[in-house]
Specification:
With about 300 residues, the protein is of the alpha/beta class. The chain is built from ten helices and 15 strands. The longest helix is centred in the N-terminal third of the chain and has 16 residues. The protein binds prephenic acid (PRE). Prephenic acid binds next to helix 2, strand 3, helix 5 and helix 7. It is an enzyme of class 4 (lyase).
Length: about 300
């Protein structure tokens, strides 16, 4: 069911009503109020109106339809890697990345009782980030659309033998007890989020800031295709900070890559690298240029 559990509905409705009055000030996020994405949105833009959406896809759609000025989307986690689907959703959304935001993620085990628990519900990323904690206690991780939504679901269930893994705020919002704090397996657990909007940033706004540029490209199906693609950045002295491969479709013939570099189009060495990349590959698509939120290297 693509609907938040009952304990979240009043808050979701009031946030949606406030956002509907001033959509340009609204920041859409995937998850119920109290989710990590909600908290990242508020850290990034404390005066914005948070707009809860059931999924990341719905949050992107809210920007596309004009229901929100931008969306806050998790893209990768230091412990558990890529956030599923984002590599397909971002390019397909047609939106531009206008900012990045890093947030230290800390999870709590929360429930109506104090255990023992057969299962804990959460977003698959949060379950992955707390994998050791759960397996040491014999608690089965069960996937839910988001962390805070899982807390609302556990509250609605009335059951004392299930728990949620979610931010502390969610326990507060949905009336659960925090059984254990900091259940993430690594204590520097951090998620990188990106902010997406309809219009790309005007590069003039980035003057003086270290810029990042995110793009996707598809290599030709020939030997050394990736070597040649990466050579474009090596010879032009451009620092690549992220490179991830993924398959599009089921042919497995042409691999796509999702990449971040330091620098912006308009800088001669970046322009030269991207021009050469276009020549060496089946296509390059820029997803956005924005200010670096954390120094790399
Ligand atoms: O469910 C949430 O709380 C989310 O905001 C999603 C999400 C993610 O998908 O990465 C965000 C940050 C954390 O890494 C865990 C979960």
């Amino acid at each position: 069911m693509r609907q938040f559990a009952k304990p979240a509905l009043a808050l979701v409705d009031s946030m949606r009503a406030a956002a509907a009055i001033k959509p340009l000030q609204a920041i859409a996020f995937g998850g119920a109020p109290g989710s990590n994405s909600h908290q990242a949105a508020m850290q990034f833009a404390p005066d914005a109106l948070p707009l809860p959406c059931f999924s990341f896809e719905d949050a992107l759609e809210a920007v596309d339809s004009g229901a929100a000025g931008c969306a806050m989307i998790p893209i990768e986690n230091s412990q558990h890697g890529r956030v599923a689907d984002i590599h397909f959703l971002l390019p397909e959304s047609g939106l531009a990345i206008v900012a990045e935001h890093f947030m230290r993620i800390t999870h709590c085990l929360m429930a109506l009782g104090d255990g023992p628990f057969e299962a804990a519900y959460s977003h698959p990323q949060a379950l992955g980030q707390s994998h050791r904690f759960l397996s040491e206690r014999g608690i089965v991780g069960l996937s839910h659309a988001d962390t805070a939504g899982a807390a609302a679901f556990v509250a609605e269930s009335g059951k004392t033998n299930i728990a949620a893994i979610a931010p502390a705020l969610a326990a507060n919002l949905y009336g659960l007890e925090i059984v254990e704090r900091e259940v993430e397996d690594a204590h520097d657990n951090t998620t990188r989020f990106v902010v997406l909007a309809k219009d790309a940033l005007d590069l003039v706004e980035l003057a003086g800031a270290q810029a990042m540029t995110t793009f996707i490209f598809e290599v030709k199906n020939i030997p050394a295709a990736l070597y040649k693609a990466l050579g474009c950045f090596a010879t032009n002295g451009v620092n690549m900070t992220k490179l991830e491969s993924y398959q599009k479709g089921a042919s497995f013939a042409a691999t796509q890559f999702f990449a971040d570099i330091e620098g912006a189009p308009g800088e001669p060495r970046v322009d030269a690298a991207l021009d050469e990349l276009a020549f060496q590959t089946n296509g390059v698509r820029l997803l956005g240029t924005y200010a670096q939120a954390r120094k790399r290297g």
